[in-house]
């Protein structure tokens, strides 16, 4: 993998040098990363970038600086790969934050936002992930359950058993592709719960052991590592069930796992799980589980606005179940948090999940 | 020949009046007074040289005796002044050869040099020294004014033979101040040189620094000739004065009118009689009353006249202004207009010359948005705001000519107003009255010149833009070359050289390169993503 990425970076440089030798301005071509070039791919069921290309030229006042910066990132990450060292995107920024010359009042990079955007450009242009460039992101998600991971890191190889991580679980790294593989999964399905609190509840209940599943929490919005892991598990034909709050944030977390987001549409299929199902919490649960009636809270403006927006997205309104659910939200102006499931009895959550999955009572 | 010039001296008893009202001569303010002194003396010298057909060579020296106390020496190579006129020339107020004459001239009332004598006397008590070389004799005088009787008091000190000609006037002043500003003598001399390219002027300032403005044209301008006034160009006051002055030469008002005015025929007299039936055209002009004059000038306005002749005007000339500008400023760009004469108040011919100089030496001289005003080649340094020229030039929409920040641009706008009669706003002769006809013509002339520089400036701006573009891109070359080198193993030097030549090629020969593609639209932020 890393050899392949190194080759791509070198090829990029060679192509530019060739252009320069032919007396042409070197060019950097990449897929346009704009909202207008973001499409929903019905075949795969995820958001991805369209076909529109963008060509950046060095000999152009508007683009010279960005061009130079892009090449600087390519060169620097190539060095990381050569040295087999990783850093964060902030670390990269600091590596490249230096003056362009003694008499120049200008830094190669002055803001991290500049380098962040160009890292994404490079990912798109070279069809690699930032993790392939030895750039790490913060970890946030956790897993518990019957899965063994082989991790080659710092010159050592470790086998991690996610069923033996006690109360803390296995912390999902930013890169689950390079020098890492899923050795064995014996689970029947994957359960994703939005909040760490619920994950700890299920862990304490030994839910994953009783149900023979993997319990994952992204702890809010999913990191790239978590999304990538879910994709890999889905590739092993494991169903992915999601349990989120019934509110704007919960829906957003779910749809990011399922179809990807507008912002990161360039990540495309490798980071989305179109097979994912939304088992709850839903508005219709209120009818099923009477005690929930008293545990709803008033929806905020942001929740209602979000529900309306979602009704406008073609990848959502094609599911009549979602249309019904969202309309109900707009009508009742209520929302429910997943924590409400513990309202009656702490261990009720497990029964709820089994009921939902067993009876296929989910939203697509 | 020089003798003829001085025959027309007339006497006016006004010295007392001007002693009390010296600001009316321009003698108000310490800097302004000194500049006015230089102006009066230099103007006299230029006029004298030109009338005698001599290429003017004038030197001006200002020496500081004590703070606010200076000696001013002005020397010319003119004809000098004969013995019997020297007192009138330098010691009698309003002793003008020029009063009541419709001829293009620098000063309009001969109070100038005598005004200096008076100012010198009342501030220092010293007489003015004059050395006149005329008719083979070099005579040295001391001259005072008897203020009560407006009579010159001339004391001849020496008389010896000479081969030279010209006059040197040495006068001392207090209550004046030398300043090297836009209103000081140096700038006055520089502008005088600019408007008089046939003159060589040397200036020595109080620090002993000598500036020479050599002539750029080897020929005096043609002499303007006197014309009769046009009926539309006179006021009631003028008409009454003409009647008093020349009236004894005519028996009847009708004959006086026909002879004194241009375009006024017997037929026109008949028309005027119809318009002003109360006026007795048969009586002597000497008997003309204010009411008569008022009715007549009113009638003048109602009759259709042929426009006045305009061939009496002598502008500096396009080529002369160009030569002069090159000589004194050597600007990067120069546009001078050449426009036909116009008429204001229906009866007074005038012409406007405009020269616009931009960049180069103008920039080096640190001139920014400077308006140089002239009336019949005389620089107008004071009363800037009340002047028709300033108002008009400032009123031009400079943005249309790519000069949005007129006051910050390296630009000099010369406007020379040429006329047989300059409507000054005061006796100090420092500002031209803002008459509509005049302002319009100035505006058109300035706009014409500005169009000339507009193209040039936009071209120049473009060149600057291209240079800036080149610079912007070039500054990133070393970093890019070094990165590409480390990425590919190719020589950084070679890549760098190649890149620079590519940039040079793209931005050479006035080709600014194709329009830049706009930056991609910004990715729309949407919610928060746990990314870091």
Mean pLDDT of chain B: 84
Distance from first to last alpha carbon of chain A? 34 Å
Strand content of chain A: 15-25%
User: Strand arrangement, largest sheet of chain B?
Assistant: 5-4-3-6-2-1-7-8
**Oligomeric form of this entry?**
heterodimer
Q: How much helix is in the residues of chain A?
A: 25-40%
End-to-end C-alpha gap of chain B: 100 Å
**Poorly predicted regions of chain B:** 1-13, 510-532
Strand order of the largest sheet of chain A: 10-7-13-12-14-15
The backbone outline of chain B, from C-alpha atoms, is globular
The description of the largest β-sheet of chain B is: 8 strands, mixed
- The 3D shape of chain A can be described as globular
Taking the sheet with the most strands of chain A, its summary is: 6 strands, mixed
Structural notes for this entry:
The complex is a heterodimer of chains A (364) and B (532). With 364 residues, chain A is of the alpha/beta class. Chain A has two domains: 2-136, Arc Repressor Mutant, subunit A (Orthogonal Bundle), CATH 1.10.10.10; 142-358, Dna Topoisomerase Vi A Subunit, Chain: A, domain 2 (3-Layer(aba) Sandwich), CATH 3.40.1360. In chain A, 40% of the residues lie in helices and 19% in strands. In chain A, strand 14 (240-243), helix 8 and strand 15 form a beta-alpha-beta unit. Chain A is globular. Chain B is α+β, with helices and mostly antiparallel strands. Helices cover 37% and strands 19% of the residues of chain B. In chain B, helix 3 runs antiparallel to helix 5. Chain B starts with a helix and ends in a 26-residue tail after the last helix. The chains are: A alpha/beta (364), B alpha+beta (532). Chains A and B meet through helix 1 and helix 2 of A and helix 14, helix 15 and helix 16 of B.
